Amino acid sequence: MKKLILALMIVGAGPAMAGGDADAGATKAATCAACHGPDGNSLVPSFPKIAGQHEKYLYKQLTQFKMHEGQTEPMRNNATMMPMVTPLNDQDLQDLAAYFSKQTAKPGSAKPENLKLGEKIWRAGIPAKGVAACQACHLADGSGIASAGYPALSGQHADYTTAQLNAFRSGERYNDPNKMMRSVAAKLSDAEIQAVANFVQGLH
C-alpha cells in the first residue's frame, strides 16, 4: 500500500501551486475564449474543452507550455499555446486554472459506428496487447483522479483526444510522467484510438 501511495504521489507531482483566484481568472480568461469558449466549453473539435478540468492538471499544462530557464523548448511544445502563455506570470496561470476548473463541462455525444469497440477498450483495455483499461486511471465516468494528476476526459472532443493519443504514440507529446500515456498509445492502432476517442466524447 505504501508503494502504491508513493507511486501516485510521483505520478501526480508537478509544479508547486499555492492556489489561484477564480474571480481574477475570469477576467484574464478573455483571451482564451476565442479557442476554448468563454466558459471553457470549446465549440471547435480541435481545441479541448477545459471546463471542469482539475485545477492542478490545468496549471501543470499551462506551465509546461511555457519556456523555462535552461530549456531549449517547452515541455509541451505547442505553436498556438506557447505565445499565449509566454507573457503570463505564475499567478496568472494559477488564476486561469482556478477559473476554468470551476466551470461546468457540457456533455458531448458519441457516434454509433465504433462505440462498442471504444467502450470495450475504456472498460477492459486490450489484454492481448498489454493495454490496461482507460478507466483504471480516468475512472468509469471519465472524471479522472485529481490527486494523482489523471485528467478528466468525459465529453472531450473526439478530434482532440485522437490528436493527443497520436501525439503520445509518435513521441511528439512527452509530458506524461513515467511514459504512462506513451506506452499505452504505442500499442493502439488508428482504429482503436478513434474508437476510444469517440467513446470518451459521449461519456458523462
Please report the number of helical segments.
11
CATH class of the largest domain: Mainly Alpha
Give the termini distance in whole angstroms: 30 Å
- According to CATH, the fold-level topology of the largest domain is Cytochrome Bc1 Complex, Chain D, domain 2
Task: Report on the biggest sheet.
Answer: none
Organism: Pelagibaculum spongiae
InterPro entries: Cyt_c-like_dom, Cyt_c-like_dom_sf, Cyt_C_IC, Cytochrome_c4-like, Cytochrome_c_Oxidase_Subunit
Pfam families: Cytochrom_C
Signal peptide: 1-18
Search tags:
single chain, 204 residues, mainly alpha, Cytochrome Bc1 Complex, Chain D, domain 2, 11 helices, iron ion binding, Cytochrome c4
Can you describe what's shown?
The structure is a single chain. The two termini are 30 Å apart. The longest helix has 13 residues, at 158-170. This protein is mainly α and 204 residues long. It has 2 domains: 22-102, Cytochrome c-like domain (Cytochrome Bc1 Complex, Chain D, domain 2, Orthogonal Bundle); 115-202, Cytochrome Bc1 Complex, Chain D, domain 2. Helix 2 (22-28) crosses helix 6 (90-101), helix 4 (55-65) packs antiparallel against helix 6 (90-101) and helix 7 packs across helix 11. It is 47% helix and 0% strand. It has helices at 2-12, 22-28, 33-36, 55-65, 81-85, 90-101, 115-124, 135-138, 158-170, 180-185, 190-202. It contains 11 helices and no strands. Pfam families: Cytochrom_C (PF00034). One of its GO terms (cellular component) is periplasmic space. Heme c 2 binds at residues 134, 137-138, 181. GO terms for molecular function: electron transfer activity; heme binding; iron ion binding. It is found in: Periplasm.
